[in-house]
Write a structure and sequence with these properties.
The protein has six helices and six strands. The protein has helices at residues 7-10, 21-32, 43-47, 64-74, 88-100, 151-160, and strands at 78-84, 105-110, 119-127, 131-138, 144-150, 166-173.
Length: 179
């Protein structure tokens, strides 16, 4: 039930590993949707709002909503939305519904139970009845790094750890100049 039947075609390396997961995911979704008049060559640089984090910028600003707003300001015909969930069961049900509708989706997942810090934003590129295939990152050489996660585990992580409560998705894609 892949939402990205040719996801490898649209997967792009993440330029900044510590801050650029949302713009990278949004870029992948827009490329898959054949968005017109979008500068993909600079997309990650233009919409990584934390590009200067630690270099004069003290607080992180990247989240699904802030990056979506920045994209909409530059490209008014593109609308990303985010949805937050109280429970992991609600989150997995929404992800499943998006996949059935063939709508690409990015998920936020807390990294603490996997030995990491914070959370990571990843697209779901394939699924079975009880698992999701997550595209963790595309290496600089173009090699995709994927991992299967049980839906039950995603739900447990959602319910048991801080952060990682949201998903992001393309809500509307118009044409440039259309009103």
């Amino acid at each position: 039930m892949s939402v990205f039947p040719n996801w490898r075609t649209f997967a792009v390396p993440q330029r900044r590993l510590s801050t650029g997961c949302i713009p990278t995911g949004y870029q992948m979704i827009l490329e898959a949707a054949a968005a017109q008049d979008v500068d993909f060559a600079s997309f990650q640089d233009d919409f990584d709002l934390d590009i200067n984090l630690g270099k004069g910028q003290a607080e992180p600003r990247n989240d699904f909503g802030s990056v979506a707003t920045a994209v909409k300001q530059r490209y008014p015909w593109i609308s990303f939305e985010q949805k937050s969930f109280g429970s992991g069961i609600e989150k997995t049900a929404f992800i499943d519904a998006m996949l059935v509708a063939q709508k690409p989706i990015l998920i936020s997942l807390a990294m603490k139970p996997f030995g990491g810090k914070g959370w990571h934003i990843m697209p779901v590129v394939d699924a079975t009845t009880d698992q999701y295939l997550l595209l963790k990152i595309v290496e600089a050489d173009g090699t995709p790094n994927t991992e299967w996660i049980r839906k039950a585990m995603l739900s447990e992580v959602h319910d048991g750890f801080p952060g990682g409560k949201e998903v992001g998705f393309l809500a509307d894609l118009g044409k440039p100049g259309a009103s």
